[in-house]
């Protein structure tokens, strides 16, 4: 397969409706065969709960709320043919080479019938037996007998290194067709509750509450559980039957030996088999391995006497690289293995295997018992025919199937370690890690294939990470490289327990090796994984650590991805980024003074105050993201305060609109009093500018109140606000000390203010440059006796378009009415 053009199966893009992967142009594949372009980064989009997760191996995964159009529909169940194909893929591969002899299951008929009977009644059963007792073989036979009992058939699962949550997801994918979709906890429980199947669960490692959780989530399933005696038992109130699997009789053990050898045992061999039965307590695995010892003995005997000088019977000669015993080389009779060798036969069996088989055993020991897939053996061993080594090991009983792969059989790991197979353990683990790092990052390798080797990858990291040292400049740490390439594949393959373990190992290795950028990547991925699992505090801590590291490295793209994920965490938890407050909580006044209300609330005399931006932000966040179970007292108080502030802002807009509209419409009116009447004597008018007396006020029964403002508001000043700014905290110019907000007297109505001798405190409000400098002082001419002084309006001022008064004639008027001018920051008129 072309690494640069992996096809639709690469990373699960098999017609799933997503954007197709970019492919190199056709001419680029043939223009220059000497040049090769690097493979593009493989990204995968999948849906996890209500999140849309984009697995990005370069800058880190990106997570966002899933748009409605991207959410998958309800998963459909697989058909019978699709279930059969899924079951076939879940089985371990058949070892290459000659077909292995199939040994019948002897003396297990009673247990087999009892298990089928209990499952047919819908009961769950726990089959307990020691390792090597034939438990897995019995489960396979019972699964075949129960194939037609349940509507969803038989589902085979492996509990090795799996949690109850992992098994629930495995059961979901075994029955439903849901590519690139990982349901959340509630949706998962709703879907698996509808599954009706016989679930064969082997090598389970938990019991008690964990097993109860699994059984309660699947009430329509009948479980056949295989476990060893050291696994915790089910809880006392669980409805699980217990069936114990013991050893075989002596006669049955001899029968297994004869079937394995293919001949009748001699008297000496039968006595040897009796001693083995007594030592092994009748475990079938011991007799399978003992049968392999007898076969090897026969082959060695044939190699010395059955091959003549003409090469007759050459096909029975053992492999050329297989060592021969000293007795066989000398032509002597090969004795039976001792009882000690038969009790721990792994070293003796391995010594008579091919070099490729022994090297495979060394890799298996280095990987904690995990046997690499047969497709990896030629690259690891360095022999093109090394895949046949798996068949040799399986025929000798040194490996046993676990799920879809093989592991060393019970007791073999300890026996090989004693025989010296750990001398080059670190070097073997390093070689395996380098191979898996290259293989997992290859474009032709799908996430499902990487997930099948998850335990081997994790085992290699377990060996390498503790011995990691700071890397030299330009060198890459193998452990970091392996975790970096395997983690995106585990995420895309929905094997998230392995994803979590690899990320933790990679973060530790990156810290030990000093690779800060890789450490930031692993922390980012751990934060995204925690966010998908609903662990918001852990997600926040991991993402903040990643952002800090990437900020120090000036990694802009990675920092942006981390901040987006952190913003999603804040949205889910109700936290306001930048404020550090949670929705529904009281905000400390010392920290958020701009959003705090005055004591006693906002008075009606302050309609011009605007709501603070912080109030609006916190109110919106609280109304959207406040948890339903959290007390809402602080939220209600905050909402009322923000509502008053928002109302004040709306009232401000209405007042300003009214004032501006009236001013613009009354500018050219002949009856406008502002064009004929001066509210206060202008200090800048001279004797030649006209009389200073005001026209007599007409008594209209309004008690001096001129009503609403009818003059045009003062032109904007230099600061961009309407009117002249004045600070209410400054001393008032009213000599009576009865100045009220809005510029009125004791009753709140405006009063005539005598001119002052001090210079005006504000520049002329007109946009036209002044033609004369305002005088610093002037004595106003008293009003003629008998003429009442007009009472000015609260917002009236001399018109700036009055040519008789001049540009500076409105300065005192602006000073007297500045306290209530819009935008001045002081008290406004009473509405």
What characteristics describe this protein?
alpha/beta; four-stranded mixed sheet; globular; 831 residues; 28 helices; Rossmann fold
Describe the structure in your own words.
The chain is an alpha/beta fold and 831 residues long. Among the domains are: 108-247, Rossmann fold, CATH 3.40.50; 666-679 and 710-726 and 738-746 and 790-831, no CATH class. A hairpin with a 2-residue loop joins strand 12 and strand 13. Helix 5 crosses helix 6 (185-192), helix 22 (496-513) runs antiparallel to helix 23 (516-532) and helix 24 (536-552) runs antiparallel to helix 25 (556-573). The radius of gyration is 44 Å and the shape is globular. 39% of the residues are buried.
Placed side by side, the strands forming the largest sheet appear as 6-9-10-5-11
How many β-strand runs?
15
Please report the distance between the alpha carbons of the first and last residues.
Answer: 81 Å
Determine the strand fraction and express it as a percent band. Answer: 5-15%
In short:
The protein is 40% helix and 7% strand. It contains 28 helices and 15 strands.
SSE arrangement:
Elements (H helix, E strand, L loop, with lengths): L25 H5 L13 E5 L2 E5 L6 E4 L10 E2 L2 H11 L18 H12 L3 E5 L6 H11 L8 E5 L5 H12 E2 L3 E2 L2 H8 L5 E5 L6 H9 L4 E6 L12 E5 L5 H12 L5 H14 L3 H22 L20 H4 L9 H5 L2 H6 L3 H12 L10 H6 L6 H7 L3 E4 L2 E4 L3 H7 L6 H16 L6 H6 L1 H11 L13 H15 L3 H18 L2 H17 L3 H17 L3 H18 L1 E2 L4 E2 L30 H13 L7 H33 L145 H6 L15
Parallel strand pairs: 1-8, 5-10, 5-11, 6-9, 9-10
Antiparallel strand pairs: 1-2, 2-3, 4-7, 12-13, 14-15
Helix pairs in contact: 3-4, 5-6, 5-7, 8-9, 8-10, 14-16, 14-18, 18-20, 18-21, 20-21, 20-22, 21-22, 22-23, 23-24, 23-25, 24-25, 26-27
């Amino acid at each position: 397969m072309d690494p640069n053009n992996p096809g639709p199966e690469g990373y699960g893009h098999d017609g799933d409706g997503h954007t197709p992967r970019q492919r190199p142009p056709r001419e680029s594949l043939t223009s220059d065969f000497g040049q090769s372009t690097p493979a593009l980064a493989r990204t995968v989009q999948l849906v996890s709960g209500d999140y849309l997760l984009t697995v990005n191996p370069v800058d880190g995964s990106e997570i966002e709320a899933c748009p409605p159009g991207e959410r998958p529909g309800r998963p459909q169940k697989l058909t019978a043919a699709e279930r059969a194909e899924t079951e076939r893929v879940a089985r371990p591969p058949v070892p290459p080479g000659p077909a292995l002899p199939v040994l019948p299951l002897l003396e297990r008929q009673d247990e087999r019938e009892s298990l089928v009977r209990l499952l047919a009644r819908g009961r769950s059963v726990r089959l307990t037996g020691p390792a090597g007792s034939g438990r897995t073989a019995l489960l396979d036979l019972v699964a075949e007998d129960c194939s037609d009992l349940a509507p969803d058939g038989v589902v085979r699962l492996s509990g090795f290194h799996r949690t109850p949550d992992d098994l629930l997801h495995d059961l979901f994918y075994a029955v439903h067709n849901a590519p690139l979709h990982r349901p959340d906890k509630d949706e998962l429980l709703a879907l698996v509750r509808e599954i009706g199947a016989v679930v064969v669960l082997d090598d389970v490692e938990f019991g008690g509450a964990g097993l109860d959780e699994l059984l309660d989530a699947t009430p329509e399933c009948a479980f056949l559980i295989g476990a060893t005696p050291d696994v915790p038992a089910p809880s006392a109130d669980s409805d699980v039957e217990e069936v114990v699997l013991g050893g075989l009789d002596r006669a049955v053990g001899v029968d297994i030996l004869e079937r394995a050898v293919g001949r009748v045992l001699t008297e000496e061999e039968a006595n040897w088999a009796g001693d083995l039965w007594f030592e092994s307590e009748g475990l079938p695995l011991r007799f399978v391995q003992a049968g392999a010892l007898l076969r090897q003995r026969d082959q060695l005997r044939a190699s010395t006497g059955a091959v003549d000088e003409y090469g007759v019977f050459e096909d029975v000669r053992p492999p050329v690289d297989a060592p021969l015993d000293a007795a066989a080389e000398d032509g002597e009779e090969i004795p039976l293995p001792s009882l000690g060798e038969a009790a721990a036969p792994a070293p003796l069996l391995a010594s008579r295997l091919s070099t490729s088989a022994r090297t495979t055993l060394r890799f298996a020991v280095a990987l904690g018992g995990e046997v690499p897939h047969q497709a990896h053996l030629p690259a690891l061993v360095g022999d093109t025919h090394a895949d046949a080594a798996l068949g040799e090991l399986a025929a000798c009983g040194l490996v046993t199937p676990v799920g879809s792969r093989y592991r060393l059989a019970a007791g073999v790991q300890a026996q090989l370690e004693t025989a010296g197979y750990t001398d080059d353990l670190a070097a073997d683990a390093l070689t395996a890690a380098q191979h898996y790092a290259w293989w997992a990052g290859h474009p032709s390798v799908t996430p499902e294939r990487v997930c099948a080797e998850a335990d081997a990858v994790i085992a290699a990291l377990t060996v390498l990470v503790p011995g990691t040292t700071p890397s030299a400049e330009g060198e890459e740490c193998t452990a970091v490289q392996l975790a970096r390439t395997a983690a995106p594949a585990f995420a895309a393959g929905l094997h998230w327990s392995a994803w979590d373990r690899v990320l933790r190992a990679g973060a530790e290795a990156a810290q030990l090796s000093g690779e800060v950028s890789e450490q930031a990547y692993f922390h980012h991925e751990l934060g995204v994984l925690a966010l998908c699992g609903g662990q918001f505090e852990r997600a926040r801590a991991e993402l903040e650590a990643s952002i800090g590291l990437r900020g120090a490295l000036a990694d802009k793209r990675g920092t942006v991805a981390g901040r987006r994920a952190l913003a999603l965490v804040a949205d889910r938890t109700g936290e306001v980024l930048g404020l550090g407050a949670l929705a529904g909580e009281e905000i400390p006044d010392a920290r958020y003074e701009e959003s705090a209300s005055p004591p006693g609330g906002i008075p009606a005399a302050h309609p011009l105050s605007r709501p603070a931006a912080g109030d609006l932000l916190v109110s919106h966040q609280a109304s959207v993201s406040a948890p339903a179970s959290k007390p809402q007292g602080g939220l209600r108080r905050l909402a009322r305060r923000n509502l008053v502030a928002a109302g004040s802002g709306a009232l401000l807009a209405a007042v300003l609109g009214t004032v501006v509209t009236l001013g613009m419409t009354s500018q050219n009116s002949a009856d406008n009093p502002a064009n004929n009447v001066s509210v206060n004597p202008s200090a800048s008018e001279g004797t030649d500018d006209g009389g200073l007396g005001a026209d007599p006020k007409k008594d209209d029964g309004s008690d001096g109140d001129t009503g609403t403002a009818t003059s045009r508001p003062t032109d904007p000043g230099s600061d961009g606000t309407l009117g002249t700014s004045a600070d209410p905290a400054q001393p008032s110019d009213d000599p009576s000390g009865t100045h009220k907000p809005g510029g009125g007297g004791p009753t709140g109505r405006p009063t005539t203010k005598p001119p002052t001798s001090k210079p005006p405190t504000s520049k002329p409000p007109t946009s036209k440059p002044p033609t004369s400098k305002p005088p610093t002082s002037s004595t106003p001419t008293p009003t003629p006796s008998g003429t009442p002084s007009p009472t000015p309006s609260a917002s009236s001022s001399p018109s700036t378009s009055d040519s008789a008064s001049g540009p500076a004639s409105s300065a005192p008027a602006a000073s007297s009415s500045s306290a209530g001018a819009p935008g001045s920051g002081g008290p406004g008129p009473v509405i």
